[in-house]
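Single-chain item
Fold in token form
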Amino acid sequence: MDFWDCNCMVGRFGQPLPGQFHSADDLEAELERCGIARALVFHALGKELDPATGNAALADDLADGKRFVPCWVVMPHHTDEMPPAEELCERMAEQGVRAARVFPQAHGYSLAEWCSGELLTALERRRIPVFVDHDETNWDAVNSVCAAHPDLPFVLLRPNYRVHRSLYPLLERHPNLHIEIGIFVAHDALADCARRYGAERMLFGSALPHYTPGGPIANIMYSELSDADKALVAGGNLRRLLGEA
């Protein structure tokens, strides 16, 4: 199975636990140990310090890695901490970056149109997938973003086993909404989601180095998905989204 991890981080971060690591070398070694071919990676400084510093550090830290696909942390430009949206997207293209991550809760801004509309429109125009943690947003914001930007691939990371009653109506309503399946572990969750909305909506993600890939890999391999659908979730869907950007 060709696993591509959509949710990895590199760089020093606050309050690491025993066994957690921060270097690109350690991340690459862990990916190799777990049989993961490629990983979409953002920099911890992009979340915990500021996006511009983190994105600059990402290029340096991933320079020698063969398994890494860079993901920039972005946010709206109104405070001059980032360039205007169109210029930001041009810089991403120049550096071969085809995915974006947002932390609206940690960075203190809204995903509503009055705040993030220009940024999301520019990303949507280029079909750059946007990744956001479940605990960084809320259901109303997910609904509003997906409705206002139907051509923007929007990936909700780390939805857990208790979210179906809010998640399913949004998957029904918004074909551009995708989910990472790392802790989406309710009974028969992957097969049930695939039967309702298609396996194309789910992506493998580990949240390394905070968590380990074993659980998400088992979640796919021991699911009732067909082999073809397992391949999509394991890596095919992420490759497709990056290829369309």
Observations:
- The CA atoms of residues 10 and 27 lie 7 Å apart.
- The first helix runs from residue 24 to 33.
